[in-house]
Amino acid sequence: MSKFGPEYVRAIAPYQAGKPIAEVAREFGLDEATIVKLASNENPFGLPESSRAAMLEAAADLGRYPDANGFELKTALSQRYDVPLEWITLGNGSNDILEIAAHAFVQKGEAVVYSQYSFAVYALATQGVGGRAIVVPSLDYGHDLDAMAAAIDADTRLVYVANPNNPTGTFIPAAQVEAFLQKVPANVVVVLDEAYNEYLAPEHQFESSAWVRKYPNLIVSRTFSKAYGLAGLRVGFAIAQPEVTDLMNRIRQPFNVNSLAQAAAIAALNDKEFLAKGAQNNAEGYKQMIAAFEELKLEYVPSFGNFVLVKVGNDDQAGARVNTALLKQGVIVRPVGAYGLPQWLRISIGLPQENAAFIEALKRALSTESASARG
What is the DSSP letter of 142? Predict the structure, then answer.
């Protein structure tokens, strides 16, 4: 066995992304055009036309390096969230922000607190810096904030909170989040990961960036990969007070957000019509999904994101079997056995016809499962 690198790096299990359409087509001999991908919580409408136009204009200057400081994008974000420019850190997707935070604030052996069934990158970022993970048992598949606050010890330097949470879709109301922030020691940084915030119904939305003024140890993390439809361009950002952003920018790679991505993000940020269309499709698609799950008498976790976690069997191979059966029918979803949920699948909400194709494929897969169990 190789002995290169630290033991804590060799212990990392690499992140497994959702299967690409081309890979499934090759593996199962399918036509790419017939495959439905509901695996990676992508926006089913894809790239906004406003972003496409902005990218075409920006392409004329691709012989130059991007603006390393992202002045125009930061200006747009500053205006949108009513925070000073120097409170913003840009990331190569919000995944980059999560890892920058670990590198900036955690030394080897120090602790990071996060919830069971929360985003896999929290564990990977912790391992990547040789940190000590404190994984707090979930409460109804979501965050137990009281237990997380109690778990913070003298060596804790960072806490990750996902709201809504991926892969379970759970949501923490604003009052509970702020009560938690009040309990966290001032020397412990909290990353509030809000990758799915734009999918919240109006009655659940709150502007967490305002909390940054009250809590100097708070980082609010957002992304353009989901509701804004820019997953392939990788644009994320963080809002925090200057003492925090200064450290993050010392760690951040130069030019981590390319010129096309910056241009596309500015356009998308101001494209309210695109955002509204996506939110409406998501709300209607969620109803379509859970109606099917209830008809099939399947347990699911009520979701506040653009995906639903559904239980497809009772043994620890159920998720893998049903996932394979769906792949053979040209439907890609996300198995979550790596999260400790081997009986479940996470389904992204797509266009109405994509959701319908998944539902029919799921019915066939479960029918085969039932026949096998009887046989």
Answer: B
